[in-house]
Structure prediction request, 111 residues.
Amino acid sequence: MNLPQTIGHHLTELDQQEKDAATMIKTQDQCLDLYQTSQKNLIAFNNFSKARYDQVHGHFESHTKLLRQVKVNLDNVFIKLRKTKALLERKYPDEMKKALEKHPPIVVEDD
Prediction:
């Protein structure tokens, strides 16, 4: 190769390298835009999820509190029923035997 051809060849390579660099920069910019868009979407989704979680958590806590109150009330009712039954058994043992024979207690199997 002579000097003009060598210089021309190097200039062509430089031009190609500049085009390659420009292509890489353009691709990197597109990737950056995609990343930023994805990040914005994820932030929005996380904020939405947090708001929904806080709302559902509030409902869950209130329902849990209600269930605890219902359990306490039911426990009190069953305590009163057991006391009343025990009192009736002491006062009227014969009648209680007849009632239990006629209406035996229901057996409930645990899960």
Summary: The chain has a mean pLDDT of 88.
